[in-house]
Design brief:
Helices cover about 40% and strands about 20% of the residues of chain A. Chain A is elongated.
């Protein structure tokens, strides 16, 4: 994922799309491996898109697709792939129909796409989502980002994709220092299950949450249960 | 900033330290240029730290500094700088004093640091914060991350740092398409002011927020006021 926006890096706006994309990809069995956040700079965007798209199956950009001077993601993606920015006749027609006589040059900038882009739509989301090869250009506004995700899912979540990740968890009052040898044993025994340990600060209900993640639910549950079986009396506080 | 953690990339935990660090750096006049989020993998961390520390004044890592198998930031940073992971006698002494007879090998892992690290403390935060050269190793737990920031600020915010960034904003009912020519004029006239335009979705109070940021408040205000003077009657809805 590539998040574009000075407003995120200045702390004026809290990033709100990463967790939503992450959870959606997880349901599709797709591992989100890397997120980069850069400023509104054509060269920075072009550099990242070139690198991410060459080394990952899919890339999702968030932000910088509006009509103003600080919206440079389309230019950055075009530069990454060595293509021109062109106006999509289809999108231009939709904008003219929508704005009618009030339509300005500014509005028509929203029809600009990297040359060679696919325009992805669904029955519900008729305003196109731009995709250039394996790179999806999504808007930064959280409400609109969420609206567009079903279009992405419909396109990339079809036949041949891996099974969804499942997750289970155990909550304990023991601290991580005490749990470490038990964790090491379950990690060694279940190489296909990803085990995470997360200390909680000042929570009366528990001190450590241990998570078990994988694509095979039987193995994930076996790892969780093997871990629980090693715990001393009085633990765990809760499992899920 | 380098955020480390499978839990962020899986959407199980929402990233909560970026905006806090960003705002603190802004008060110090330091521009946060780039954030990368990677999984709990030594090589991924080492690669990023090497690259970020070579190309930026300061690097801040968040997460992966606990004692369990999935805490690999210290190993990653050590690998980035080509040094060993060693136990700090000072931190080991503090851990032994704190845990007493209950102290385990697991607890003592929290004394591990990349060799050659500085241990930064303050009167209020006596548990050391690890810094290796220009790279600060901060914990991922949001409450602890916030506790440590004053130590960072005391060390890097001293004499010789640039002046703080200031920010002002204007809210309008006009959309970005209509505002674009006005924005272009103010951007061209105030090269030293960063102008951002942010559409709001379904907010009855305004449709577009335009922000003006820079180190020189007089110039920031001049840019804002020049922009407001170009607006038609009935705008703006509000300035700040």
């Amino acid at each position: 994922m590539l998040v574009v926006g000075n407003e995120i890096l200045s702390g004026k706006v809290e990033e709100a799309n990463l967790a939503v994309l992450a959870r959606e990809l997880r349901r599709l069995g797709i591992l989100l491996k890397r997120v980069v956040i850069v400023m509104d700079e054509v060269d920075a965007i072009a550099h990242e898109v070139r690198e991410l798209s060459a080394t990952h199956d899919w890339v999702f950009t968030s932000g910088g697709v509006g009509p103003t001077h600080d919206d440079v993601t389309i230019e950055g993606v075009a530069k990454a792939f060595g293509v021109r920015v062109v106006s999509s006749p289809e999108m231009e027609g939709m904008l003219r129909a929508h704005y009618g006589e009030r339509c300005t040059e500014g509005h028509l900038r929203m029809a600009l796409v990297p040359e060679g882009s696919a325009l992805e739509v669904s029955a519900e989301v008729t305003w196109p989502t731009i995709r250039h090869g394996n790179t999806w250009l999504l808007p930064g506004i959280p409400e609109v980002f969420r609206m567009k995700l079903p279009v992405v899912v419909a396109r990339i979540g079809g036949a041949g994709t891996a099974s969804a990740f499942v997750s289970h968890a155990v909550y304990m009052k023991m601290d991580e220092g005490l749990l470490k040898p038990l964790l090491d044993r379950v990690v060694a025994a279940f190489a296909d299950v990803s085990v995470g340990s997360y200390p909680k600060w000042l929570d009366p209900a528990y001190k450590t949450k241990v998570t078990f993640d994988g694509r095979d639910e039987a193995r994930v549950l076996a790892a969780r249960d093997a871990f629980v079986a090693m715990l001393p009396a009085g633990e765990p506080q809760r499992t899920e």
